[in-house]
Amino acid sequence: MKIIVDCLGGDNSPAANVGGALKALARYGDLQVILVGDEGPVKELIPDDPALKDRIETVHAPGVITGEDKPTDAIRLKKDSSLIASIRLLRKRDDVSALISTGATGALVAAAILRIGRIRGVRRPAFCPVLPTMNGDTVAICDSGADTDVALEQLVQYAVMGSLYISQVFGKKSPRVALLNIGTESEKGDDLRRRAYPLLSSTPGINFVGNMESRDLLSGKYDLVVCDGFSGNVLVKTTEGTALELLRKLKKDIFSKFRYKLGALLMKDMFEREKEFMNYQNYGGSVLLGAEKIIVKGHGSSDADAVAKCFEQAVTMEKNDMNGKIADALRAAEGQGDNGNV
Question: The domain at 1-116 falls in which architecture?
Answer without folding.
Answer: 3-Layer(aba) Sandwich (3.40)
